Automatic annotation (TrEMBL):
Pfam families given in the database record: PH1_SSRP1-like (PF21103), Rttp106-like_middle (PF08512)
Chain residue ranges for the region called Disordered: 215-277
Subcellular location: Nucleus; Chromosome
Domain (Histone chaperone RTT106/FACT complex subunit SPT16-like middle): residue spans on this chain: 90-182
Function noted in UniProt: Component of the FACT complex, a general chromatin factor that acts to reorganize nucleosomes. The FACT complex is involved in multiple processes that require DNA as a template such as mRNA elongation, DNA replication and DNA repair. During transcription elongation the FACT complex acts as a histone chaperone that both destabilizes and restores nucleosomal structure.
Entry protein name: FACT complex subunit SSRP1
Keyword terms of this UniProt record: Chromosome, DNA damage, DNA repair, DNA replication, Nucleus, Transcription, Transcription regulation
GO BP: DNA repair; DNA replication
């Protein structure tokens, strides 16, 4: 909403509240909230352990202070959205999941829905993504739905504005994800057919006849060297707030996409996320 920043932290061991297990911890800040603090550690020890990465006294936006502490003390990089822009030039599309309003973030290698319930879906785990009600909005409807089916689960996101259809299709073209049309008996959508971008209600029957029933992997492969979701550069961010300031902007730590220091891949299980709601 342009007023808040949010961290989404994926927990190695879920928190339990009664019979409910919480796999994510969500921290929300007012975007304009600023603080100043002094670390309970000497300058000498700071210089010895952290060098120029950390100062004894910190001040500025609270989310920025937390980012610096994560980076310096915990040695965890923070990932910000990249690779997708919505119809309104934001990093997410507004939708609902299980009757809860939120934002769906298409990241470089995953999807993230915040904030209740948090859903983190890696591209590698997706069997296919299915569009529903696109024939309706091609005629008179104002929204459509998508259903993401993984190896062991499925996630439905409803009420997406029809203006977000084209950005989502353009995003999927660059990913190795099978895409189906739920309005046409689950047949695979040929994303190379430009008519699908402009008029999803029309199905190119000739193209469909040439596609195997199992489905077409999203056209345009995602090179293994594409890289991980973009890291949050705290120093650069001071002059580039636009990287974070968008309606519902967020960031996600994808450990399996990172290496030590945030440069390459890591097998670490803990994930952290930062986002502006």
């Amino acid at each position: 909403d342009g007023l808040h920043m949010m961290y989404v932290i994926s927990l190695r061991s879920p928190l339990r509240q009664g019979q409910t297990a919480h796999n994510y911890c969500v921290i929300q800040f007012k975007k304009e909230r600023e603080e100043s603090l002094k670390l309970n550690i000497s300058e000498e020890e700071i210089n010895k352990k952290y060098g120029k990465e950390l100062n004894q006294e910190l001040e500025g936006p609270l989310y920025d202070i937390l980012s610096r502490l994560f980076k310096s003390l915990i040695k965890i990089s923070i990932i910000v959205p990249s690779g997708f822009k919505s119809e309104k030039d934001t990093d997410a599309v507004k939708c609902s999941s299980r009757a809860q309003d939120g934002y769906l973030y298409p990241l470089l290698k995953s999807f993230l829905f915040v904030h209740k319930p948090v859903a983190y879906i890696r591209h590698d785990d997706i069997k296919y993504l299915e569009f529903n009600r696109i024939s309706e909005f091609a005629a008179a409807g104002r929204s459509f739905d998508i259903n993401i089916v993984t190896k062991d689960n499925s996630y439905s996101f409803t009420g997406i504005s029809k203006g977000e259809y084209k950005p989502l299709v353009e995003y999927l073209i660059t990913k190795n994800i099978k895409v189906r049309n739920g309005d046409d008996e689950g047949k695979t959508m040929d994303l190379t057919n430009m008519d699908i971008l402009t008029n999803p209600g029309r199905v190119n029957r000739r193209a469909m006849a040439d596609i195997e029933e199992e489905g077409l992997e999203g056209m345009g492969s995602q090179d293994d060297s594409e890289g991980e979701d973009e890291s949050f550069d705290i120093d650069a961010q001071e002059g580039e707030d636009s990287d974070l300031e968008s309606n519902g902007s967020e960031s996600l730590i994808e450990e399996s996409d990172l290496e030590d220091g945030g440069k390459k891949k890591s097998k670490s299980k803990k994930k952290k996320a930062k986002k502006e709601e």
